[in-house]
Inverse folding.
């Protein structure tokens, strides 16, 4: 599991140094709204303009709700930057959750980023996801929020 996470982070960062700004979401919270309430904490890094106008983001997290779960994931994001505030973005990705049962997920995201300073923003993100585990699938809807720090 650690090797996969390291590969994801290296892949993101290796293409990022020659591209756009790096960003980190150091302590975001995620509230699952459907089918039941749960909380998680994510730590992610990403880079803008890695594949043309697309940003890549990857990271890991811990979740509670029926036991502790560890997650890793990667997303592709398209930012709709505006000259004013706020900025919008959308995208999708893949994830893997382990803890009791292993769950594979296909995620979507649509968010709002509110600049505070040039390098410090807050974001709110709606995250629909389709989870696959044990031959069945479940739709979940989450809301994620937290700070986003930009480097460079």
């Amino acid at each position: 599991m650690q090797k996969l996470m390291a590969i994801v982070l290296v892949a993101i960062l290796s293409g990022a140094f020659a591209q756009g700004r790096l960003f980190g979401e150091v302590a975001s919270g995620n509230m699952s709204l459907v089918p039941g309430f749960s909380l998680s904490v994510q730590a992610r890094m990403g880079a803008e303009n890695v594949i043309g106008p697309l940003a890549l983001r990857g990271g890991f997290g811990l979740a509670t709700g029926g036991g502790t779960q560890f997650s890793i994931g990667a997303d592709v994001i398209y930012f709709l930057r505006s000259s004013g505030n706020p900025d919008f973005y959308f995208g999708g990705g893949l994830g893997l959750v382990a803890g009791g049962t292993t769950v594979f997920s296909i995620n979507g995201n649509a968010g709002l980023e509110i600049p505070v300073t040039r390098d410090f923003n807050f974001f709110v993100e709606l995250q629909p996801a389709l989870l696959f585990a044990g031959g069945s699938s479940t739709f979940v809807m989450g809301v994620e929020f937290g700070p986003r720090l930009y480097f460079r």
